[in-house]
Specification:
1 helix, 37% strand, elongated, disordered N terminus
Length: 147
């Protein structure tokens, strides 16, 4: 009986390992890290340029896209197109990087698009990875900060 256990366990382990190699991640991303957007500097000045870095999860069978678009009410044009950044990609994911210009100080007044804003305001940075995974990040603007 002892010899039987040794032959069954390795065979089961091999089957499990081989079976998991071909498994693709689900389309809803339920067991994959979500996409993220990081904006630098952490707190930006009105009129300055910010750098946006996005990381998207990898899905087997879904090709990487050369660009990803993100939007924010805080961007002067409302959107930024980020280009693929192979150096910034983590294993199992894709990275994108680009910049966006912020509008002048007057745009960050007490009359924000969603009501009054304080001296330091937070703005969403949103988009979608090539596989449909939503991108979410935050941009902070200090209207009294100078470049």
């Amino acid at each position: 009986m002892w010899h039987f256990r040794h032959s069954v366990l390795p065979a089961a382990a091999v089957l499990l390992a081989v079976g998991s190699l071909g498994a693709a991640a689900p389309a809803d991303g339920s067991d994959v890290a979500p996409a993220s957007a990081e904006v630098r500097p952490a707190v930006a000045a009105p009129g300055s340029t910010v750098t946006i870095t996005v990381t998207c999860p990898f899905y087997q069978g879904v090709p990487d896209t050369p660009t990803v678009k993100v939007t924010s009410q805080a961007f002067a044009t409302g959107e930024a197109v980020l280009k693929a950044d192979p150096e910034g990609a983590l294993p199992g994911g894709s990275a994108y990087k680009g910049t966006a210009q912020l509008p002048p100080r007057a745009n960050f007044s007490d009359d924000g698009p969603n009501g009054p804003v304080g001296r330091v305001s937070e703005w969403g940075v949103d988009g979608t990875c090539g596989d449909g995974t939503p991108i979410h990040g935050v941009l902070k603007v200090d209207r009294d900060k100078t470049r």
